[in-house]
Write a structure and sequence with these properties.
276 residues, Cobalt-precorrin-4 Transmethylase, domain 1, 11 helices, elongated
Length: 276
């Protein structure tokens, strides 16, 4: 039986692929690539003539069957558009399918956007939680952020440029004004690591249209985060009231249990919102 190699490829700078990665891509019979256009740039740079086969989010089960059939007698490689296959890309499905039928799966380690950003963030690296892309809708984003708001681990998210500012607003409302690093265009010409607080990042990136692919590395909850910030309480109040499921006293009771605030303080905040 053949072997499926998981080959990590550069996230920007073409020099970041390993010698072993280049050799494997030269030796396998076929490369399953998430984006064949991006893959051809890499292969041409290293004079690799191995045939390519498109394998992406919209590939059918028939395509997996075809690749598994070739794996019966040949070695194959899978590469993502950038970085390590299987992390936020369709390579995961092919990898699990190959494992399920007993093929050897061998990783060729290399670039990974989340770990690259974490290593340069200045935030704790001994315990972190990677959660991929934040949800597109604000409510879903806030719900996900609320689920991890009390965790002590450094948080890592990916974000697209057109949603960056809205996401920073939601992060500020739910997690508070924590320290973070916004990594942009890593290993590329316009590489940038902006290390500040959430509010400072929001102000900085609002000066013009954010460009590039972003990775957000956010400090985990500390002692100062055990009690919610006032903006976070107000955001939770607005959400609870918009849902209209509870009375003011019911909302105050629930949020007091969750936020560390006194029930009377929250009730007064509700009344102040009513009067404004």
């Amino acid at each position: 039986m053949g072997t499926l190699y998981i080959v990590s490829t550069p996230i920007g700078n073409l020099e970041d692929i390993s010698y072993r990665g280049v050799r494997i891509l030269q030796e396998v019979s076929l490369i399953a690539a998430e984006d064949t256009r991006t893959a051809r740039v890499l292969l041409q740079h290293y004079d690799i003539s191995t045939p390519l086969s498109s394998y992406h989010d919209f590939s059918s089960g028939k395509k997996i069957t075809q690749l598994l059939s070739r794996l019966e007698h040949e070695d194959l490689a899978v590469i993502s558009e950038a970085g390590t296959p299987g992390i936020n890309d369709p390579g995961y499905t092919l990898i699990t399918a190959a494992l399920d039928v007993g093929h050897r799966v061998i990783p060729i380690p290399g670039p990974s956007a989340p770990l690259t950003a974490l290593s340069a963030s200045g935030l704790p690296t001994d315990s972190f939680l990677y959660l991929g892309y934040l949800p597109r809708k604000s409510k879903a984003r806030r719900d996900q952020l609320a689920e991890v708001s009390d965790l002590p681990h450094t948080l890592i998210f990916l974000e697209s440029p057109h949603r960056l500012l809205d996401s920073l607003d939601d992060i500020h409302s739910v997690l508070g004004n924590r320290e973070l690093t916004v990594a942009r265009e890593m290993t590329k010409i316009h590489e940038e690591y902006f290390q500040a607080t959430v509010s400072q990042a929001r102000e900085y990136f609002s000066q013009g249209s954010p460009r590039g692919e972003f990775t957000l590395v956010i400090a985990g909850a500390g002692e100062q985060d055990l009690k919610w910030s006032a903006p976070r309480v107000r955001a939770a109040l607005e959400q609870a009231r918009s849902e209209g499921k509870k009375s003011a006293s019911g909302i105050a009771k629930q949020l007091a249990q969750e936020s560390g605030w006194d029930r009377r303080e929250i009730y007064d905040m509700i009344n102040a919102q009513n009067d404004s």
